[in-house]
Each structure stands twice: as structure tokens, then as C-alpha cells.
Amino acid sequence: MSSLLTDIQASKPGSYIFMTAFGVNGEVMLDPTAPDPATTTLTNVFLAAIERQVNLRVLINENLYLHSGLSFCKPLNDKAGETVCAPETRHNKVQGSLHAKMWAFVNEEEIVSYVGSMVSTRNLGKKALRVEGGAKLLQRVER
After folding, report:
1. Distance between CA atoms of 31 and 128, rounded to whole angstroms?
2. Domains and CATH numbers, the chain
3. Within 10 A of 93 (CB to CB), how many other CB atoms are there?
């Protein structure tokens, strides 16, 4: 996930970060080997991006059983002073989910997207993002 972390940290004022996710965990570290891994949690890197005046737009898909969006979005919205992160529950069924996972970074120089699958290993006793199934499913695509 180092390229994802690099892209978030490299985002400059006025640029955009778009993300959709399902069942997000803000404590997930994008680089657990960093000298201070807590600075690489998803929540902390997004808070730092907001501080740099990066435009953040996050949509968290939820269902009846999984409600991580509200707690994940609250500190981001509080820091931004507006809604930059929102949970959404538009599914066919009560337990349905979109499982959409997408990132896009838009700035003056380029548009970079990440599409594919990523999971948190939190329930394995670790708090880090990994590529699901060991395959390189989360791809960085440049325009």
C-alpha cells in the first residue's frame, strides 16, 4: 500500500481524493513499518490531507449489519467543517452491499486511480491493508 500512501501524502492544496469503500476501518495502517506507524492510519492520513486543504470526497457503503461509516466519517467531517465523507445504504436488500472499492487522485498533473480489492487484516490480529488473496488486485492506473 506504499504507493497509495505516497499518493495521499503527495496530494496538494486544491487537488482531490475520491474514495468508495465498504466496511472501512480508520485504524488500518497504510505503512505498519513506518517509524511512527500511527501516522499512517487511514484516518490520520486523511486528516492530514484535509489540513493541507486537499478536497476529500469519501462514500462508505454500509448495510444493516455493518455500520463503520458514521464513526469513520465523523472526525473527517469535523476537521473539514463540512460533509466530505458520508455513509450510504442504498442496497437491494437489508444485508446487501456494493463492496465498491475505488480511489482516484485528481490534480493538475495527472489523474491516478486504484481499482480492485483490498481488505483489512485487523481480524487477523494486525491492522494493515493487504491485497486480497495475495494477488495484485489493487492496481495503480495513470492517465
Report:
1. 7
2. 2-142 (3.30.870)
3. 8
Interatomic CA distance for residues 10 and 6, integer angstroms:
6
Q: Which residue has the cell 466496511?
A: 23
Q: What is the pTM of this model?
A: 0.78
**b/e 44-67 (16+ beta carbons within 10 angstroms → b):** bbbbbbbeeebbbebbbbbbeeee
Q: Which residue shows C-alpha cell 486480497? A: 132
Beta strands in the chain (DSSP E): 16-22, 55-61, 85-88, 102-106, 111-115, 118-120, 129-131, 139-142
Max Cα distance, the chain (Å): 44
Residue 133: what pLDDT?
37
What is the reported pLDDT for 121?
A: 41
